[in-house]
Amino acid sequence: MFEVHVKAQFSAAHRLANYPGNCSRWHGHNWEVTLYLEARELNALGIALDFREIKRHLGELLAALDHADLNAIPELASLNPTSEVIARHLFRQAAARFNDGNLRVSRITVCETPGTGASFWE
Fold it and tell me: Would the pLDDT of 5 be above 90?
């Protein structure tokens, strides 16, 4: 089994309802997202999937979040857009794009600061 990953960033604002602290107020982050893919086999070139293709797909997923109010994103509107919730949201979107007989999204990590983040996998 092989695992490859790519990182990308987006900037967005959010607030956490009912949070007992300053995160209950509107604030922004420069989020970093790492997408991990597992591959059973390599292609004829010896790669799981071209990094450029993975980056393109991840960029398309993040474009909907970039410079957005995460609390207003329809899929997140009824939830607190925490790192954990965003990771699950992106994981499921990425799985719909990548999962096939050879490739599978193994996890996604979302960091809201350089030292803090959350991962989701199924």
Answer: yes
Strand 27-39: give its sheet, edge to edge: 68-69, 2-14, 27-39, 103-113, 116-120
The tens digit of pLDDT for each residue in 55-110 reads 999 999 999 999 999 999 999 989 999 999 999 999 999 999 999 999 999 999 99
Closest CA to 66 of 30, 98, 120, 26: 30
DSSP 95: H
Cβ contacts of 122 within 8 Å, gap of 6 or more: 91, 95
Question: Which CATH superfamily does the domain covering 2-120 fall into?
Answer: 6-pyruvoyl tetrahydropterin synthase/QueD (3.30.479.10)
Residues forming beta bridges with residue 116, ordered by sequence position: 113
Pair of tokens at residue 39? 């591959």
The one-letter code for the residue type at 101 is G
C-alpha span between 26 and 13 (Å, rounded): 7
Which position has the token pair 């993975």? 54
111, pLDDT greater than 90:
yes
